[in-house]
Write a sequence for this structure.
């Protein structure tokens, strides 16, 4: 009998709505084709429009209620008439922390039939094949700090933005990153820091990295980069990188750069994982709501499809056992790993045939790309 997974979709704003609809179509095609699993979708309208109407995105208790689902599929958040820090702090950031989604995994590679702006990758697209592991629960996005306005002189207003790094938070993301590197072809982990200028949290980050590295000695190669030098290395020597681990802010920025170097931010996926599987994980393309092209039928749905494939792959391990780090691995529900592979192959076939949106240099709209991917899945 087919196993049912309860998925909650939060399309959010702008093209988040367009691409979530496309992702549901693709996931529905996948379940029909494979027949061993089903998705039961609920949809929540936690959008900027709702925020303007009623004063909140998620209702009270709404984020807690997400715990009953097997996974969360998220579109995009943000609209010009709501300050971005409100939309982020009312929804996406509290979802990640409430549901223990401390590992944000962002793979990047160049899809067939697409062109990287890196000239070196024209001859060898496999030179760019990275996974960025982003610390997703603390650091620069801790939300601590405040503003002290000056009633006498506006120029004397003081604001602080406090980064919080905890030993527990650092250790667990490094272990997750080393475990990820173990699964990768080059088995290389690059740790990104800024410990020359930031002398407290980043120095602790460095020290704990070398402690955890000892556990993986001989199994994973590793090195360390300052974040500014890392941007240069990504552009100049992409083939020298494999798995990358960085703080919440650094990895947020580096993953946008990575996506652009692979051809378009429109193709880039992300998984917000609770590696213990106590709570549902959340899957979302890394791009934002793109108000300039929202509702026009031209958004690139590939980042959404790749995120959907990552969700299927994650759900495939639903019955797995945890390793000594509490990271649940293996499992294998029905043939869901094959289904995830099938979706990724369908995406690659479609881009290779030139069915691409404008950001990738093509002429196709969201629907044409979606229909083409569904057809490939069925073939
Ligand atoms: N689909 C992802 C999205 O809406 N991103 C908007 C954004 O700015 N996210 C910040 C973050 O991922 O921390």
């Amino acid at each position: 009998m087919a196993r049912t997974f309860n998925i909650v979709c939060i399309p959010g704003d702008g093209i988040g709505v367009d691409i979530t609809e496309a992702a549901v179509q693709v996931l529905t095609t996948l379940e029909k084709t494979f027949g061993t699993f089903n998705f039961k979708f609920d949809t929540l309208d936690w959008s900027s429009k709702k925020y303007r109407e009623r004063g909140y995105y998620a209702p009270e208790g709404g984020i807690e209620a997400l715990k009953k689902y097997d996974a969360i599929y998220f579109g995009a958040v943000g609209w010009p008439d709501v300050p971005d820090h409100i939309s982020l702090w009312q929804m996406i950031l509290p979802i990640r922390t409430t549901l223990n989604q401390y590992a944000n995994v962002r793979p990047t590679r160049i899809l067939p039939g697409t062109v990287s702006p890196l000239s070196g990758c024209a001859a060898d697209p496999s030179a760019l094949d990275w996974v960025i592991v982003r610390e997703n629960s603390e650091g620069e996005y801790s939300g601590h700090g405040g503003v002290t306005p000056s009633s006498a002189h506006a120029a004397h207003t003081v604001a602080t933005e406090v980064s919080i790094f905890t030993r527990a938070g650092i250790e667990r993301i490094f272990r997750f990153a080393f475990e990820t590197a173990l699964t990768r072809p080059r088995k290389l982990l690059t740790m990104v820091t800024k410990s020359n200028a930031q002398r407290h949290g980043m120095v602790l980050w460095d020290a704990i990295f070398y402690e955890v590295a000892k556990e993986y000695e001989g199994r994973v190669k590793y090195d360390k980069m300052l974040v500014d030098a890392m941007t240069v290395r990504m552009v100049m020597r992409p083939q020298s990188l494999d798995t990358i681990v960085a703080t919440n802010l650094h990895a947020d920025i580096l993953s946008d750069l990575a996506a652009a170097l692979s051809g378009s931010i429109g193709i880039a996926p992300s998984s917000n994982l609770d590696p213990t599987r106590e709570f549902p994980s959340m899957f979302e393309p890394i791009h934002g709501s793109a108000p300039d092209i929202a509702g026009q039928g031209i958004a690139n749905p590939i980042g959404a499809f790749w995120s959907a494939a990552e969700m299927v792959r994650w759900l495939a391990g639903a019955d797995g056992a945890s390793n000594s780090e509490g990271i649940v691995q293996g499992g294998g529900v029905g043939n869901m790993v094959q289904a995830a592979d099938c979706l990724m192959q369908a995406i690659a076939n479609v881009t290779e045939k030139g069915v691409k949106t404008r950001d990738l240099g093509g002429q196709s709209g969201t629907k044409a790309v979606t229909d083409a991917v569904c057809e490939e899945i069925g073939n």
